[in-house]
Amino acid sequence: MGCSTWEGVQDDPANHQKIVTAAARGLDACQSRMDELAQANVTMLEHNRQLMQSLFSFGYVPSYVCVGTVPYDGSNAPADSSNH
C-alpha cells in the first residue's frame, strides 16, 4: 500500500484545529518539524518509532512519525507574535 510517513497540515474544522504530521530522526526534531510546518507551537498527540529506509545509505534508520494539533484561533502562536 505504501508508507504512511507523509508530512503536512490538515484542517480539522469540526474540532477548530489543524492536524500536523511530521517525520524526523528523533522526537525533538519531530516536534521542531511540526512547529515549522504549522508555523505555530504544535501540541504532540502521538508518535511512532519506525524503521525507515534511508535514501542516503544502504539500510534503515530509526525514525519517528509524529502527529500533533494546533488550534485555529492562534492562541498557541509562536513567541514572535505580537502578544507581548
Low-confidence stretches: 1-5, 79-84
Mean pLDDT: 80
Share in β-strands: 35-45%
**Topology as H/E string?**
EEHEE
Number of H- or I-type helical stretches: 1
Cα-atom radius of gyration: 14 Å
Largest sheet: 4 strands, antiparallel
What share of the residues lie within helices? Answer: 10-25%
Counting DSSP E segments of at least 2 residues, the number of strands comes to 4
What distance separates the N and C termini?
A: 48 Å
Structural class: mainly beta
Order of the strands making up the biggest sheet: 1-2-4-3
Tell me, briefly, the overall form. elongated
SSE layout and pairings?
Layout: E1 8-12, E2 17-24, H1 27-38, E3 43-53, E4 60-71
Task: Describe it.
- It contains one helix and four strands, in the order ββαββ.
- It is mainly β.
- A four-stranded antiparallel β-sheet has the order 1-2-4-3, covered by helices on one side.
- The longest helix is centred in the middle third of the chain and has 12 residues, at 27-38.
- It is elongated.
Task: Offer a concise description of the structure.
With 84 residues, this protein is mostly beta strands. It is 14% helix and 43% strand.
Defining key terms:
84 residues; mainly beta; disordered N terminus
